[in-house]
Amino acid sequence: MDNVLHLTSTASTNEDAYQLALDGAQHGYAVIADEQTSGKGRLGRTWVAPANTCLCCSLILRPKLPFVELPRLTLTSGLALYKVIEKLTGLNIFGLKWPNDLYCEGKKCGGILVESSSPVTSDEKSFVVVGIGLNVNSLLDDFPGKLQETVTSLLIQTAKHYSIPELFIQLRHSLLYYLKIHEELGFKAILKEWRKYDVLYGKEMQWLTTEKKVITGIGLGPDDSGQLLVKDRMGDLHMILSGNVSLKE
Ligand code: BTN
């Protein structure tokens, strides 16, 4: 494959891709690994992916977008991932959980970690690394104890195995395609599609604030800037920029 670094094992493909981007790797260059030993998730979490059964990849993008627009690429990438999975499985049982998760029947099947170059980087050198972890051919027993309650995979959901390299090729294509839509038609065009697959919309959900306060409310989906809107029991509207949200049990 052109412009792809395929590693048997690495700490984190996002870290590898970030360094390659700093060294000048071009738009669309990707790192894929059969195994990650220190996979990174959002909010400083670790990403656990049983070796050889998951897709772990990171794509370097040099978007023609202003810096303020870059965090929105999490939603753009989620849409790109959703579309690949819907087409591949022929099923509409999957959905997107704001801001970065691929969900199925209340369980997490995949996640996205977008990391941007420093805000002081010049426009020509600025970049984004889009890291994607997708549970493909894993079974629950492949995951450590507690995680088994919250994760799922394409194999578990569809009773079929999938080629991880083939999935990666389709995903890279889809990411580059939806980035172009974002650049040319604007984030609104992405949101219009994304909202169709929103698993939190109209549902009772919880949000953990940075002050560690739990707020319960109804998910109203992302606003035009990509922040999540939640209406609490008193009817007050909250705009969530970042944080941990979940469906209320
Ligand atoms: C999340 O759901 O918190 C985001 C998970 C992102 C995991 C992927 S796996 C490939 C890439 N490399 C990493 O270290 N993380 C991302």
Small molecules (ligands, ions, cofactors) in the structure: biotin
CATH first level of the largest domain: which class?
Alpha Beta
What structural class do you assign from the helix and strand content? alpha+beta
What is CATH's topology name of the largest domain? BirA Bifunctional Protein, domain 2
Explained architecture:
With 249 residues, this protein is an alpha+beta fold. 25% of the residues lie in helices and 30% in strands. The chain is built from five helices and twelve strands. The protein has a seven-stranded mixed sheet. Strand 10 and strand 11 form a beta hairpin. The chain is globular, with a radius of gyration of 17 Å. The relative contact order is 0.15. Bound molecules: biotin. The site of biotin (BTN) has 21 residues, from helix 1, strand 3, strand 6 and strand 7. Biotin (BTN) binds next to helix 1, strand 3, strand 6 and strand 7.
Summarize the structure.
With 249 residues, this protein is of the alpha+beta class. It has five helices and twelve strands. Strand 10 and strand 11 form a beta hairpin.
